[in-house]
Design a protein that fits this description.
- It is a single chain.
- It is built from 16 helices and seven strands.
- It is mainly alpha-helical and 386 residues long.
- It has a three-stranded mixed sheet with strand order 2-5-3. It has a two-stranded parallel sheet with strand order 1-4.
- The protein is globular.
Length: 386
Amino acid sequence: MLKFDIVDKGVRALPPYQTYLKAQKTFVLDRYRRFLGAQGHESPGIKLLRYILQFVDMDYLRQQKNNYDRYRYHLRFIRKDLYSVFDRVQRGGSFHELFFKSQVGLTAEYLLPVEDLNAIVNLPLDTESWDVWKTVKPLRLWAYDSDEFTINIINDRVHFVDLAPSYAIELLDVIALVFKYFVWYEHQRDQEQAQELALYVPQQLFLHKYVFCDWCWDLTDAWILNQLSLLPNLQVDDLNQFSPDELTRELQYGRIALGSENAFRYLYMLLDDATKNMRPEVIFGSKLLTQGSIYDRIRSINDELTLPIHSQYDWLRWLRDRDLYKFFCGVWSRSDLPTAKTYFINWRRDFKRTLNHRPWNVCNNIVIKTQIEQEMREFYDWLESQ
């Protein structure tokens, strides 16, 4: 697949776009707080995560001196067993109605294991402070292909009304999940307001409140990146599709902040300026998502969310990074900088190598398999045309 260089050229204020983003975050934060106060639900996804946690010997973890020993003497030996509970990729399979629910179609959910190669570096193992660990995100929703914006995660499943995604990419770091639960159980459980739930159903409470509710932000960023991926190849007359009235959204849980059309129009004009004064690196380093910049997202993929290094995962890397590829390469395609020509030479070579291996052959979902082949070939043809 493609490799993207991170070149720090500073951060630029993007007033119309970031005003829209701030308003969008205000709406998401309101819904997030509502979900946080809810009781939670024994959905199929929550049940699977509880099953994983039950593999862990909590008494043995308590006997260890620190988190490093807990990892060295226990977790690193059982991680493969934990992966086998949910990783269906080796067989080309997916889940259905695990974390997604819709009346208009099934979503193929690919729950992928995050390798623990950098666990000692990436996780805050040097502390058991809950204030630190509560920011760790063991379960991420990274991508889905629906144009409908919603953050409706009632009963611990995402509900779509009009356009159910054909697929969703979900990333699970089991080591982070176990450590976060252990720290919560030992240091925060007694502080929870819902003491009855903390006492009788601690895993369900923890998973709802400190794992799944964070999907409000993941749903938002995946949808925004999907919209951004369209931007480089549009014409000026197409930009009205970003107005709240034109965008597909769930009415109660998918409000689009006012100013969305002006925000994307402003960003589009900046991309035009990339041929003159605006360097693409400045756009990638500026905050375009609720959880950071495009560069922040690339760093997460490279450093924190590493998939197993097996060819069976190559087609899933495309689904995971498709929108990122389209936006990143699309912005560079509008630049006259000599660097752009070098990048496209390297990207064509690397993507051609991937294409020759026909990675979609591993997928046993014929619809998604066909979709991946078509999209990858079209993307390569586009790279060739640059």
